[in-house]
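Job type: complex structure
Entries:
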Amino acid sequence: MTMELSAARAAQQAEKTANLDAYVAGRSFDKPTLVLDVDLVEAQYHALKAGLGRADIHYAVKANPADAIIERLVALGSHFDAASRGEIELCLSKGASPDHISFGNTIKRATDIAFAHQAGIKTFSADADEELEKIAVHAPGASVYIRLIVEVSQADWPLSRKFGCDKDTALRLLDVAKDLGLNPVGFSFHVGSQTRKADMWEPTLAALSEIWDAARDAGHELTLLNIGGGFPAFYGEAIEAPTSYAARVMALIEAHFAGAKTIMAEPGRGLVAEAGVIVSEVMLVSRKSDRDVHRWVYLDIGRFSGLAETEGEAIRYQFETPRDGDPMGPCIMAGPSCDSADVLYEKRPMQLPLTLKSGDRVLIRNTGAYTSTYSSVCFNGFPPLDVVVI
Amino acid sequence: MTMELSAARAAQQAEKTANLDAYVAGRSFDKPTLVLDVDLVEAQYHALKAGLGRADIHYAVKANPADAIIERLVALGSHFDAASRGEIELCLSKGASPDHISFGNTIKRATDIAFAHQAGIKTFSADADEELEKIAVHAPGASVYIRLIVEVSQADWPLSRKFGCDKDTALRLLDVAKDLGLNPVGFSFHVGSQTRKADMWEPTLAALSEIWDAARDAGHELTLLNIGGGFPAFYGEAIEAPTSYAARVMALIEAHFAGAKTIMAEPGRGLVAEAGVIVSEVMLVSRKSDRDVHRWVYLDIGRFSGLAETEGEAIRYQFETPRDGDPMGPCIMAGPSCDSADVLYEKRPMQLPLTLKSGDRVLIRNTGAYTSTYSSVCFNGFPPLDVVVI
């Protein structure tokens, strides 16, 4: 990013987070705390929806299941992508219609499928014979979409091969679903988390549209395409603005997938990450050797208390301290636990003020997604990440 | 391990876990559950103590803070290594004497040091100037030991550079502690988690004893050596029996460290891992492609619900299924969440029965350590790992 863009972005960011900043500035915190501004979630919902047009937003609840977020999204008419019975129960309890909830995990407990079916959920995902058999028994006649594996990705965090199946298997599973009395309506896929530019979707979509066409050629009347998530949040590297990003993705979808009457999009990170800031504190600044250039900076939050996504140093959070005007130097950053794997950034150290010391407050920006729920119950006797909604 | 040793080990294991097996066999579980036999913790405590002789066992509470474990160890006269204020409060609430608790985390919140001091805790660890300054202010006159970095390790899970400092810094910190009015009593170190054979300690001890001697030559009257953990549990590769292992480690310690009046040992995994079994269930067995040799086996427990130590596939748990007599084939194993990083074993697949299918029970052996506390609060809407003590 150029300095100019960076300054513009900083000004925009400061305006967006004015309420969060005011709340945080006036309070002291005795443990790491995620502060959420649900108005920012609403603004981002509108921005994404403006670009997504006819597509339905199914919020990926796993990104952040805070009551206030679910309630606000229900009020806005959002749909929901649930990963478990627990998430379905949450959405229903906040007033979501079962028609607006899809059970998107390809790995489901049989009794949870039965629960979802009885609750009125009608759309399920699958990527394997055994999963279709479970759905056929416990949610007879349900609509299913087959998850495709994505072999081509330009995401910051490409997904593993855990989810989805290849072309031949997917086409075969459409037949299996029909034979089992299910309604095979289409496909789903995921371009990879944090796909920063809309054009990065193009190679994935080109590859997958061949499978879509082959299924239609084989006589399957596909009507649904679930384009998953991948919508980015700002972690320091330039990303496109949400409306133009979403509009460009939709234009690519329309060009590649003919006949897809229903489009589902599942933003999680892209909807809630920028609505939250974690307030943390420096526990210790040290050097392993008096000759070391790098300092070690230990925070009161680490990989096992909310910052799990620093694994592999893929997500590089933005840190702010009260000493940011001072000269900077390279730091290895780590969490407070006695676990030697609880290191945040080591291969690519962070620049932090040379004056930083124990007791200083550190704000971790854009941490509204995939933080509070990753937090462990009591690892090393530390409480889980606290969450406050303003 | 030879087949013969393996059979002997299996018989020994079956005898040890007879109570666990009987409990588990007679019940059904609707979510992943860790079942603990505290009598096995007691037996292992006696076995380790028989070898450790004059050393004090400080149980590393972080390995498993279950009430029943702490209560039993208090009754046995164990000491405790606490990582946080939360763990100190737990030990005190179960009747541990503050004299028997050390605050072993090198990264401590200032207010937690003050709490510990007021609670009567007298021994603290440190590896940096700033930490000593905090201790001097909030626990004036306390005993401190300086943690040394271990550059030489043969452990299955060598530690990162997160903890400890080098020789020159350690010697300087002894002086700093004295200048601050603290009582610098000795050193601590950690050979690395899961050090399977006692002789693997030798190179580490040889290197560290030079620092011990240099400190004494510089006029520091060191009286305490904290040898940390590293005591292994059985995860499929041969380990030495606990008493002979501990006795050999103590013999090495006595040979290398003259004048160490007090020896602290901090077993965590080595004390509680083999006292627990996780009862889990197969959610799905599938292939990504009809041409794939490997199956994917998805369990109802994964990296974010208790099996965090599968990261990097370092710890290879032992799985048992009701179909273990059937022909076996290679499996990639994964957890139930929608997180693509929630994969347990992929680089080195596991051998599991070809007949394995959704709904089958899977026992995960020797999972009493570092499972329940790593578990996330509600990732993907799944509840944390349940714990039952028999």
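Summary: The mean pLDDT of chain B is 94. The first helix of chain B runs from residue 3 to 16.
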